[in-house]
UniProtKB/TrEMBL annotation:
GO terms for cellular component: endoplasmic reticulum; extracellular exosome; Golgi membrane. The keyword Nucleus does not apply. GO terms for molecular function: calcium ion binding; mannosyl-oligosaccharide 1,2-alpha-mannosidase activity. Its cofactor is Ca(2+). This is alpha-1,2-Mannosidase. Disulfide bonds join 361-393. The gene is MAN1C1. Its main location: membrane.
Length: 537
């Protein structure tokens, strides 16, 4: 029994309503909800068509009822919330049962996956899921995850880790869990792990290499990165977490490392004002002129605007770099298709590749977030651009048979917003499109974003839910897709969290007080009066 109005993240329901959770946690199928004060009981089976229609109808109702808080739409939003809770619980319970201590769940073969991104670290799903479990108030499950971190999370490991992945998933996940709960264990693990990443910065320029052995401290560049280069989206996606590591430890070294990256980037000449994806950590010069707001470039831009927001709008250098970069991107990469869809192409030494990766779909949300803070005229311009890009990404979902989007879609040879290559037709439970829906919803309150989010939920339930978890699919253009047997940790960290937030009130992790790292882990804005939860109590 959780009195929701005591929830630390803000009131999600009027103070006279309590929600009884036990039936959900004991038996998510059929799902039974009880709104005790209003004495409303809603029982349904989530596989039945009636549920589907009811919820669809009710979501639609919201659009013309607006967002006033009356008992009817509270009933409905509670139902939707519980729907997300059961999805998260299903994903977590299966991971726990079959793969606890491994990095990810293989939901078809019912075993764990370790992979080679985390250099011997384990429990990527545990650390990635911590804050989502907490925010959803899945208390028992949160305790299970916390206990694993306390008792089994071993940092004394050897092996090749991606600096970027360890930072965004583990450090980001631990920092968010600390700020939300005030539990020291998360802070100390984050700091200890942060120390282990520092040797990667020992290069002539201070630009870190992409791969590090967490035991020996040896670091090197990815074999596939041209001429030993470092990747823009990797070394450009450390700033938020590293500033918090300095803030929490009092050790300036973390901030110094990322401020130095900023310095190198400021100095290097930008072709047409653009930032290519490959930079030499030895010379500090670009190695290739490939520019993309999707993979290899993406979260560098995201961290510029979020650095400014996280600094309580004091880091004006980051804002200027973001504004200039976006202006260059708009000038050289943003295009409109014959069918009227706006997209962001990739740039190879001046030649455009008319393709958008699923990863690039986070940019609708980013541009909307940045637009909020321009002058009135610019604001409208960027809000329009953000809405157009989000619409294009929605089209990439809507034009598939599964209603889930492909890994990449193209705008050439008569194709619009669809994959043209067999190798680009898969969907691995990625969050970027839903992420943009959340920002667009919060900043416009246009109910279509919730409707689009609900379409994703239905598609996930229909095509990705398997007996023991959620799985990616190999082809979004067939309604009998084959599964890839992988429940990615970012599905729990990002996709389910963003879907949940899409249907929450705006004060749950308010955009005024929190920025989400690129793995959707919330970090507090540096208002001078901010304190983690433990010190508030
Ligand atoms: C996540 O790990 C992060 O969002 C990252 O920035 C990009 N890729 C995945 C999800 O698609």
């Amino acid at each position: 029994h959780v009195p929701v109005h005591h929830h630390p993240l803000g009131e999600k329901l009027p103070p006279n309503i309590n929600l009884n959770l036990p039936c959900l946690s004991l038996n998510p199928f059929p799902l039974v909800l009880s709104l005790s004060t209003l004495v409303i009981r809603v029982c349904f089976c989530y596989y039945s068509i009636s549920f589907d229609c009811t919820v669809e109808h009710q979501v639609f109702d919201l659009s013309w009822r607006g967002q006033e808080h009356n008992s009817e739409n509270f009933e409905l939003s509670a139902i939707i919330h519980f729907f997300f809770l059961q999805m998260m619980k299903f994903a977590w319970d299966n991971y726990k049962q079959y793969a606890l201590g491994k990095n990810e769940l293989r939901p078809l073969t019912k075993n764990g996956h370790i992979g080679n991104m985390f250099g011997g670290l384990r429990g990527a799903t545990v650390v990635d899921a911590l804050d989502t479990l907490y925010i959803m108030e899945l208390e028992e499950e949160f305790q299970e995850a916390k206990t694993w971190v306390e008792k089994s999370f071993d940092l004394n490991v050897n092996g090749e880790a991606s600096l970027f992945e360890v930072n965004i998933r583990y450090i980001g996940g631990l920092l968010a869990a600390y700020y939300l709960t005030g539990e020291e264990v998360f802070k100390s693990k984050a700091l200890e792990l942060g120390e282990k990443l520092l040797p990667a910065f020992n290069t002539p320029t201070g630009i870190p290499r992409g791969v590090i052995n967490l035991g020996s401290g040896m670091s090197w560049s990815w074999g596939w990165a041209s001429a030993g280069s470092s990747i823009l989206a990797e070394f450009g996606t450390l700033h938020l977490e590293f500033l918090h590591l300095t803030e929490l430890s009092g050790n300036p070294v973390f901030a110094e490392k990322v401020l130095n990256i900023r310095k190198v980037l400021r100095r290097v000449e930008k072709p047409q004002g653009l930032y290519p994806n490959f930079l030499s950590p030895v010379t500090g010069n670009w190695v290739q002129h490939h520019v993309s707001i999707g993979g290899l470039g993406d979260s560098f831009y995201e961290y510029l605007i979020k650095s400014w927001l996280m600094s309580d709008k004091k880091d004006s250098e980051a804002k200027k770099m973001y504004d200039d970069a976006l202006e260059a991107i708009e000038k050289h990469l943003v295009k409109k298709s014959a069918g009227g869809l706006t997209y962001i192409a990739e740039w190879r030494g001046g030649i455009l590749d008319h393709k958008m990766g699923h990863l690039a779909c986070f940019s609708g949300g980013m541009i909307a977030l940045g637009a909020e803070h321009g002058g009135e005229e610019k604001k409208q311009h960027y809000m329009d651009l953000a809405a157009e890009i989000t619409n294009t990404c929605h089209e990439s979902y809507a034009r598939s048979d599964t209603k889930l989007g492909p890994e990449a879609f193209r705008f050439d040879a008569g194709t619009e917003a669809m994959a043209t290559r067999l190798s680009e037709r898969y969907y691995i439970l990625r969050p970027e499109v839903v992420e943009s829906y959340v920002y667009m919803w919060r900043l416009t309150h246009d109910v279509k974003y919730r409707q689009w989010g609900w379409e994703v939920v239905k598609a996930l339930e229909k095509h990705c839910r398997v007996e023991a978890g959620f799985s990616g699919i190999r082809d979004v253009y067939t309604t009998v897709p084959t599964h890839d047997n992988m429940q990615q940790s970012f599905f729990l960290a990002e996709t389910l969290k963003y879907l949940y937030l899409l249907f929450c009130e705006d004060d749950v992790l308010s955009l005024d007080d929190w920025v989400f790292n690129t793995e959707a882990h919330p970090l507090p804005v540096n208002h001078s009066n901010f304190k983690p939860k433990a010190s508030v109590q």
